[in-house]
Amino acid sequence: MLVTDSNHSELRDRSKAEPSAVIKNNLNAQDQQTSDFKQKLQQFGFRLETSAMAPRTRQSVAASPSQKLTSKVVKNASASNSDVTSKVRIDGSESATKAALSNSRKRKRAMKNVESPTVKGSAMNPVNNLKDSLEEGLILVSIGVNPGIMTGLTGEAYSHPSNRYWPTLYASGITPVPHKPKDTHSLMDLYGLGHTNVVAHIASRAASDLTKEDWMVGARDLDEKIRKFKPEAVCLVGEGIFTQWFRYKEGRPHNVKKDGPVKFGIQDEKYWIGRKEGEYKGSTTWVVTTTSGASTKHSTQERVAIWKPLGDWFAPKRDQWIKERKGQEETADVI
Asked: pLDDT tens, 15-41?
């Protein structure tokens, strides 16, 4: 057959006008071949999985209208976002850039302020169930910075598994047997050992989350609590607590060159917590290492060695406490 320009034009128009018909014919031919092949396999005793040999449909060849629409919407949204970004960049003004960054930071903070799966409050304001273990006549009160997330949730001091507080109490001789966080409040009756924190009313993931105002209010409240209950001694669990306390007492940061480095053990009497001239000399104040699992400044051996003098001081007083309590119980039984 001789192909002229008119014939060529006719074929081209036909292919443009009937593309779906051509595709349909091809699919029908493939389906017929598949059906013939199935019949031959069945004749030879083969079992066929219909889902594995399902004939192709037009959806596998061409996207559905809804898919095309979704793709178009996504492209339009991307183009819109790109236009906004481009406008900020092209504008180049400092105010526009700051506004964009500010909105971005606000969105990030809003995303963080959601319900946490581990606490009964927002991630920005976690619950705090920890109560002070304080009463008059205690031998020693242990003072931390503030409750952590898990401590606030459980209401038990130093309850995070990575914290070495409870093993250190036993290793240094402060407690005669190992204890766990659940024993927090019972140690007052057992040994005359209490617990509190500088910022007792706020739970947070880290001490760095506390503001200067939190420290100032907490230090003032702690001073008042110690004057009220008058324990024989207190220990600050971490030298960082002492530097913050120094700032509160002196109204200025601790200066190593002028004031000397922070020393472990008993502090100078003028820095005893609760001290008030003419009213109360304060409780003997010890400084020991932090027991936080996040701190790697001291090894286990170094930490226990620093705590040991406190344990040596406390142990005989603790034993006398136990003896007196036991005598009181025996007397009560006789009566």
From this structure: 455 555 555 565 666 667 667 766 766
The tokens for 234 are 């207190």
Distance CA 281, CA 231 (A): 12
pTM: 0.62
CA distance 194 to 143: 9
71-120 pLDDT, tens digit per residue, is 444 455 444 444 444 443 334 455 555 555 565 555 445 444 433 333 34
